[in-house]
Amino acid sequence: MPFNxxxxxxxxxxxxxxxxxxxxxxxxxxxxxxxxxxxxxRHLRIISNDNDVETQNFASLQVCLCEDDYPGWLxxxxxxxxxxxxxxxxxxxxxxxxxxxxxxxxxxFTQKAMQQANYYLWGGTVAPNYDCSGLMQAxxxxxxxxxxxxxxxxxxxxxxxSTAELEVGDLVFFGTPQKATHVGLYLADNYYIHSSGKxxxxxxxxxxxxxxQGDAVSQSYYQQLRGAGRVVKSYEPQRR
Length: 240
What we know:
With 240 residues, the protein is an alpha+beta fold. It has helices at 5-10, 96-115, 132-141, 151-157, 216-222; strands spanning 16-19, 23-26, 34-38, 43-49, 61-65, 71-74, 82-84, 125-126, 129-130, 159-161, 171-175, 180-188, 191-196, 204-209, 225-230.
């Protein structure tokens, strides 16, 4: 069933929809700067709208993604790519031992993503172009485990560990003393995989080393190392 804006306005409680295609979500009503992406099959809720149904003057819609509670704005050109959700999203619970068994698949996802032609895309969570936390979220989501969207949120969500405790599949965080601004996935032997920017990184997915002995890019990130975190649960959305 295609998205019916008029019925949404008349019945605002029935506000959960399913994405029929990969969609861009923006950080403002103008829809000019990418905030995140929603892969086909994801669920979202409409928060508010300023649409004039009678004149068909459809403005952007403020939405929130159900799996990670991430807000954004949807372009009116993408309204036809939403379908009313017949089954509401429910988070799947994972034990720490279940997550550990799935980490090898998470790593395989990132390595396959690296083999595709790609570049760093701010806000990217859909193949082939990712930002740092978007790659982490997509990799874990590929096995059903949800992380929050942004690097600083992922740092807060994971179980803090020291870098001396790093195990395969842990997350490593970089940034300033005040906030995590970058994240990668630990592989082994002081190597991690991440998507980094064009100006100070690899402009896409690559493997770097977590030591002072790497090249200029590796050294730059190593100097910004904040710590590490272990994924021990899957994100549970707030109840609405």
